[in-house]
Automatic annotation (TrEMBL):
<comment type="similarity">
    <text>Belongs to the eIF2D family.</text>
</comment>
<dbReference type="InterPro" id="IPR041366">
    <property type="entry name" value="Pre-PUA"/>
</dbReference>
<feature type="region of interest" description="Disordered">
    <location>
        <begin position="222"/>
        <end position="259"/>
    </location>
</feature>
<feature type="domain" description="DM2">
    <location>
        <begin position="329"/>
        <end position="418"/>
    </location>
</feature>
<dbReference type="Pfam" id="PF17832">
    <property type="entry name" value="Pre-PUA"/>
</dbReference>
<dbReference type="Pfam" id="PF25304">
    <property type="entry name" value="WHD_eIF2D"/>
</dbReference>
<protein>
    <recommendedName>
        <fullName>Eukaryotic translation initiation factor 2D</fullName>
    </recommendedName>
</protein>
<dbReference type="Pfam" id="PF26291">
    <property type="entry name" value="SWIB_eIF2D"/>
</dbReference>
<dbReference type="InterPro" id="IPR004521">
    <property type="entry name" value="Uncharacterised_CHP00451"/>
</dbReference>
<dbReference type="InterPro" id="IPR015947">
    <property type="entry name" value="PUA-like_sf"/>
</dbReference>
<keyword id="KW-0648">Protein biosynthesis</keyword>
<feature type="region of interest" description="Disordered">
    <location>
        <begin position="178"/>
        <end position="202"/>
    </location>
</feature>
<keyword id="KW-0597">Phosphoprotein</keyword>
<dbReference type="InterPro" id="IPR036877">
    <property type="entry name" value="SUI1_dom_sf"/>
</dbReference>
<keyword id="KW-0396">Initiation factor</keyword>
<dbReference type="InterPro" id="IPR003121">
    <property type="entry name" value="SWIB_MDM2_domain"/>
</dbReference>
<dbReference type="Pfam" id="PF01253">
    <property type="entry name" value="SUI1"/>
</dbReference>
């Protein structure tokens, strides 16, 4: 609802009688709150305002603001808490858990789908259709979203955790949150609850114990048809596995790796950081809260089977790690508000931010990834199932829930299309020259000047390591014609060679010979000389009697 900017109609202070009415409404809607808690939420003397606004879809909303933060909002005579309120009262609503990568989709205005839920050991909270619920992330009980359940818990289990589970109304990082102090969620440890007795469940369909077990199994292995292996998006295991697997919370040590666990965690931390900057963070996201970088971007870049834990690294704290990255001039961190650090600048051209891959290497990486993660369709080996990582990399927004498999050729071509093109030219005794974009061919064109005189123009010699002035001197001798070197129009710091007469045929052969003798090598076998055949035909046609 607040994914886009809203329009404020009015902002007025609330009188004493209206405060008392608001307290009564809060008590009726949230009976678990005590009298003292209600008085704390709706203060008697402190400043309390009501802001009437229109959401981007035209919905009329009343927002109650206390201490500079929105605490409640009213829509169609229904009262809802904001994330600021839920951080103070995390048990106010039944809470469901999802993965950090899902938060980005919710902030963008998406609803929460059931395959994105994480089933804890105690099972899902018991709710009915239309109940107001909170949504938190794995490992932190502080809610990051508020939504309305579209079905009861029993119906969720009976559906096999498929379909839409919650209509999301408000999230952390949306425009309603931005109207407050923009603080980050506090760290609240998950509760250790005993599994409920399904046999004593009231007012709901009896759920089979085996079905509950199947749901936990789904939380570990994921849905192959809708959102396969959601946990791969953040590199963490389910809460039920965390209590049994001693490796959770750290690394899965490789017995063949001589590095210490701390050194491995340092490498993993840097890898996730650089991957997040390269693939997920955009210029428009800056300034970016450091906590958001970690929770919404770095966790989702963690490889499968490993968990990012800064406390197990040599840095111990995120702030120290980011200071180190700032010293290496990759990012710039500033404290925009008291105690809250944000990334305000990124050196997008820093050499550590990316590497160059040839097309064959990209294909090998994608094929190995699909085989390692058992994504090849068992019934049709020509199809590959798309896990959340592949979906995020190659699918458009409107394809996220529609496309679940792709043929190999389509998968590989899409991966190559998403990569930024680059080219490399190598000269003997020199470091390879790598530049972004596509290398242009040496352009030879025939032009007509005053008095019907023809001249041959050569451009883009510098891209292949050829000095235009040296080439002009050689051409003057070989072609026995005058040459001039002038700035190339429309190209910065580039020169063009102009030779008198129609020299297209001679130039093509001469330039190929020069390039072979210079030892220039690139990812193409030979450079392309554009316009040679066409201009030869034009020249011959003009000289026919």
């Amino acid at each position: 609802m607040f994914a886009k900017a809203f329009r404020v109609k009015s902002n007025t202070a609330i009188k004493g009688s209206d405060r008392r009415k608001l307290r009564a409404d809060v008590t009726a809607v949230f009976p678990t709150l005590g009298t003292d808690q209600v008085s704390e939420l709706v203060p008697g003397k402190e400043e309390l305002n009501i802001v009437k606004l229109y959401a981007h879809r035209g919905d009329a909303v009343a927002v109650y603001v206390s201490g500079g933060n929105p605490i409640l909002f009213e829509l169609e005579k229904n009262l809802y808490p904001t994330v600021y309120t839920l951080w103070s009262y995390p048990d106010l609503l039944p809470t469901f858990t999802t993965w950090p990568l899902v938060l980005e989709k919710l902030v963008g205005g998406a609803d929460l789908m059931l395959p994105g839920l994480v089933v804890p050991p105690a099972g899902l909270p018991q709710v009915q259709k239309g109940d107001l619920c909170a949504i938190a992330l794995v490992g932190n009980r502080a809610p990051v979203a508020i939504g309305v359940a579209t079905m009861s818990t029993a119906e969720m289990l009976a559906s096999g955790l498929k379909g839409k589970g919650f209509s999301v109304l408000h999230t952390y990082q949306d425009h309603l949150w931005r109207s407050g102090d923009k603080s980050s969620p506090p760290s609240i440890a998950p509760l250790a609850l005993d599994p409920p007795d399904l046999g004593e469940e009231k007012g709901s369909v009896q759920a089979d114990a085996t079905l509950q077990g199947d749901m936990r199994h789904l939380a570990l292995e994921g849905e192959e048809e809708e959102d396969e292996e959601v946990q791969q998006m953040c590199g963490e295991k389910s809460q039920s596995e965390a209590t049994e697997d001693p490796s959770v919370g750290g690394l899965n040590p490789d017995p063949t790796d001589s590095k210490t666990l701390q050194e491995q965690m340092d490498e993993l931390l840097q890898r996730c950081f650089l991957h997040a900057l390269k693939c997920r963070v955009k210029k428009a996201d800056l300034p970016l809260l450091t906590s958001t970088l970690l929770g919404s971007h770095m966790f989702s870049c963690c490889p499968e089977g490993r968990q990012l834990d800064i406390k197990k690294s040599s840095y111990k704290k995120l702030s120290k790690f980011l200071q180190h990255m700032q010293q290496e001039q990759i990012i710039q961190v500033k404290e925009l508000s008291k105690g809250v650090e944000s990334i305000v600048a990124v050196d997008w051209k820093h050499p550590r931010k990316g590497s160059v891959l040839e097309g064959s290497e990209v294909r090998t990486i994608v094929i190995n990834y699909a085989k390692k993660n058992d994504l090849v369709d068992a019934d049709n080996k020509n199809l590959v199932k798309l896990d959340p990582i592949l979906c995020d990399c190659i699918l458009e927004k409107n394809e996220q829930h529609a496309v679940v498999k792709l043929p190999w050729d389509s998968l590989l071509s899409r991966c190559l299309e998403k990569l930024q093109p680059a080219y490399q030219v190598t000269f003997p005794g020199q470091e390879p020259i790598v530049k972004k974009g596509k290398i242009g061919p040496i352009d030879i064109t025939l032009a007509q000047r005053a008095s019907n005189k023809k001249v041959t123009v050569v451009r883009n010699l510098e891209a292949y390591g050829l000095d235009p002035c040296s080439v002009a001197a050689i051409l003057q001798q070989r072609c026995q014609a005058s040459t001039t070197v002038t700035p190339a129009p429309g190209a910065k710091d580039s020169l063009q060679v102009q030779i008198q007469g129609n020299q297209v045929h001679h130039l093509g052969r001469l330039l190929l010979g020069l390039l072979r003798s210079s030892g220039a090598r690139g990812w193409r076998r030979h450079p392309t000389v554009r316009g040679e055949k066409e201009n030869r035909r034009q020249g011959l046609a003009r000289h026919r009697p």
